[in-house]
Amino acid sequence: MINKETEQNTVLQKKDKEASTQKQCKIYIINSSPRKGRNTDEMCKSFKKGVENAGGEGKIIYLNDLIFKGCRECFACKLKNGKNYGKCAFSDEITPILNDISHSDGIVFATPIFFGDASGVMKSFAERLLFPYIRYDKDFTSIAPKRLRTAVIYTMNVTKEIFENDYLRADNSGQLGLFESWIEKVFEKPERICAHNTYQFSDYDKYDAEIWDANDKEWQRQNVFPKDLKNAYEAGKRMASI
Ligand SMILES: Cc1cc2nc3c(=O)[nH]c(=O)nc-3n(C[C@H](O)[C@H](O)[C@H](O)COP(=O)(O)O)c2cc1C
User: Which end of the chain has the least Cβ crowding within 10 Å, N or C?
Assistant: First the structure.
């Protein structure tokens, strides 16, 4: 006859085994900054640490290391009964990543702000990832295989006020408001993590950049950027914990 203690131990062992065989949450962090080790990259690395701290797996993809193009407008992804319906038919170095992302648990779109918008490289990537999943019906219904958790990481020169008033706008009609609304049509609503007033040059005196006050930038770098990194870390933890 099995005694009560043995029975309890067996139940606990079963639970441990179930937990260890549960699929680890996988998050893709897509970095469109060409500069490794700078603002956007540091934010991505911090987010990844948060993911890992919560027991997930974070993978940073450096878009600028890959040779790829934006949408080719072949419309194979919209061809009724076509073999590529709902998928990007164009093949290049991001093709395997697009496939892997669709079966992951979350995606982060990390971009330096260029001309008040996501970078061109990020927008090319978003065209290839999002467009095949968006149906041309009146609601632009998503046919993505999974509704992934999402976040956006933006780093930029301007202040929070300019970012919110000009790039986002209260009704989300700014360039970045629209960028986020397309992400939300396909996946979940993105959590937004920002680093404003970033440190752009290693030595401001050497560059033609008179509108920026080097001392103010240095102060921001020392006092505000560490908080931005912490926010990215916490957001990574949150995404992997849901
Ligand atoms: C081509 C280009 C355009 C930019 N346009 C803007 C802009 O419109 N608004 C802004 O706040 N910062 C702008 N910036 C500054 C970058 O967004 C900012 O320095 C960012 O933190 C750089 O990221 P990184 O350190 O990862 O390269 C621009 C930078 C470049 C190179």
Answer: N
Return the residue matching tokens 């912490």.
230
DSSP class per residue in 137-181:
STT--B--SS--EEEEEEE-SS-HHHIIIIII-TTS-SHHHHHHH
The closest-lying atom of ligand 1 relative to the alpha carbon of residue 42 is: 26
Ligand 1 centroid to Cα of residue 156, in Å, is: 5
Please give the single-letter amino acid code of residue 95. T
Q: How many CB atoms lie within 10 A of CB 179?
A: 24
Does ligand 1 have an atom closer than 6 angstroms to the CB of 156?
Answer: yes
- pLDDT grade, residue 7 (50/70/90)? low
At residue 58, what are phi and psi to the nearest 5 degrees?
A: -110, 135
Rg for the chain, CA atoms, rounded: 21
Secondary structure of residue 14 in the 3-state scheme? helix
Given ligand 1 and candidates 43, 123, 157, which is best to mutate, with the most ligand atoms within 8 Å of its CB?
157
Q: Is the pTM of this model over 0.90?
A: yes
Residue 178, both tokens: 């629209």
Superfamily of domain 24-241: Flavodoxin domain (3.40.50.360)
SS3 86: coil
Q: Which atom of ligand 1 is nearest to the CA of 40?
A: 26
